[in-house]
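Sample entry was shown:
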Amino acid sequence: MNDQRNLIVAIVLSVAIMFGFQFFIEAPRQEAQKRQQQEMAEQAKAAEAQAQSGAPTAPAGATTGTAILPQAPTSSTMTPQLPGTAAPTASAAPTGAAVPTAAAPRLQIQTPRLNGSISLIGARIDQLTLVDYHETVDNSSPQIVLFAPAGTANPYFAEFGWLPQDRATPVPGPDTPWQSDSKTLTPTSPVVLRWSNGQGLTFVRTISVDDNFMFTINQRVENSSAAPVTLFPYALVSRTGTPTTSGYFILHEGPVGVLDGQLREPSYSDVVDQKSIARKTTGGWFGITDKYWLAALVPDQSKPVDTRWIHGKEGAADKYQADWLGEATTVAAGTSAEVKSNLFAGAKEVKLLDKYEEEMGIARFDLAVDFGWFYFLTKPFFYAIDYFYKLLGNFGLAIMLVTLIVKILFLPLANKSYKSMSAMKQLQPEMLKLRERYKDDRQKLNTEMMGLYKRSKVNPASGCLPIVIQIPVFFSLYKVLFVTIEMRHAPFYGWIHDLSAPDPTTIFNLFGLIPWDVPHFLIIGAWPLIMGVTMWLQMKLNPQPPDPIQAKIFMIMPVIFTIMLAPFPAGLVIYWSWNNLLSIAQQWFIMRRMGVKAT
């Protein structure tokens, strides 16, 4: 009686925990994502209006999007001071004054995959929209806005420049008016920006962009004065406002980079707590990432730079910045000097990141995608799925085919396990007799059970082997579906229009037949139910635990997993269902060969 009561209590608590998670954690997270999508849609409309008018206008209460610029050293023997480490003085170089938002001329950006503009006041890359990506599966929904200029709700931009050793030397800043040799930046037509400081220094900035998401910024200083000048190059990515993250512990969103060959993933809260996270590096990249989008600075891979993530406040808004400061560059009289760096601003497409890593020598650039602990499995799985997708034209079918291949590769090991499980099923009658005979002597019962297993040459733990093997495969496929943008908005068949999103149907409104907007925590779709049924069928083929309480707990596991996997990506649930069906077929075939009744 007590065992029965404990079982009921365990079931109730398990269901309460799962529903509590859905109601108090998952549902608010979904609402936060919806709000973020609405904000980005409003940003897209504002950006489109700004592009048409040629100048952004600041809404009431909007932030100015100031950057925390480096402060120049005052002696050639001093180490350059990193951005934002000291308060600016009246004699300091430009300190990130607000970009004027009225009547600012703009240079248009037009590529096959990007639309946007560069403000000619400050020469910031501050307006970017991703042409290929939309907020929802509906192609008429707003395009993804990555960068937004000062004057919008959440400014997000990239800035490049020089800092003087002598603070009296004028250098271009965020309020500098640049002259451009053209009106549009395209992959085939770089733009050249110029500004003269009136003291013999001419700053020339050449900006080019490829067909995808990589900008190249070549900064040159021409010294026609009679004295040498020492300058320090810098670059930064500034983001105002803490974005709404997905909230999953297996996914990193926020500051990210590979510095001196090591992956660094501090969280937003880490930067807030520490104020500044600094590191010197030669080569690598770093910036700020969302789940699918990345803004990353790529300094010259052969020169050492000081890098940093920092946090500050702009009014009530949090400000995050990734920046690097290069070594001193002395420009002799009558000569020039230049420094080249890159900016990636776009979607984290795996093959594209691999291409940049190979062609540009960017160290471990593919780690911008959070492949996780099972990187050695996750990335090959992605390439396998992507290969079969090109053959079959559907990511869902590609997942099924990869699952079948994995099952074939592990066939010998799985067969051995299923044979052992079938042998265990044959021993069920004898096990029940022993349990009845020694029901009052648990120690004797365990001894006799072990003797029975030994005489029959059966390993009771071998049945767990397929599950153990499946765990890293499951997790790797989950990561592929969850973090790779290639799976985003990828359709399957029927009602599944996005394999990276949960099954949108639910049994609680009879899969749409009843016009009722079901609460999020009650959404248990058709594919999770299919998965639960296949799991139940598979467990019926397995030998039942000798303990009746354990047997009952095992039989409610399909229900628990159905509820638990309902909010998971539909592609993952389809994989699990398909894998169960393959396992059932394999196990049934082996049982038939061994003469075991499959009930």
